[in-house]
Amino acid sequence: MSVASSSFSLDKELAYTKLEEENGYQNLATSESTALFQTCIPYLPVEIAVVCLMFNILIPGFGSILCGIVNFCCGKMQETVKKEDIPMKVFINLLVGFMQLMTVTFLLVGWFWSIAWGIKILLLSIENQKRIKRQKILKEQKQKCKFAFNYAATDDNNDDDEIPPRLKY
């Protein structure tokens, strides 16, 4: 992928981010086919996601409840949602955790569900961390590209007969 095409895609992504933030939306996308309950799982820092998984293994549903509570301080929703819908998404997380805890007595269904949910929380957090790293790299490349083009534009004042200083060996 060339620098120009990567900077174009970054420009497009940043424009969408700005537009959605102006309209009161958070800019994080997910696939259309995921269920309502799964779209309520927030992106958490990986360390907190590991803690939620451990709690879901030890006390079924507790990690899911913790995930819902922690969402207020350091989580971001998977999908583009209005900011006033976030409490509803958190409530669904709390409800899922409570249902996991209540269904443990029914052939340990809640415990297996809780472990699967904890793994999903961790996988989404790792995916989000990788996405953030890719965005940082793209921004750095874009800044380097802008610097190079700005430097080339400022050297246009040189005489035609003279070789620009950056090209001399």
TrEMBL record:
A cellular component annotation (GO) from this entry: membrane
Membrane topology recorded in Swiss-Prot or TrEMBL: Multi-pass membrane protein
Superkingdom field: Eukaryota
Subcellular location(s) of the protein: Membrane
Signal sequence region: none
InterPro entries, sorted: SPEC3/Stum
Keywords: Membrane, Transmembrane, Transmembrane helix
Membrane-crossing residue ranges in chain numbering: 48-74, 86-102
Protein name as annotated: Protein SPEC3
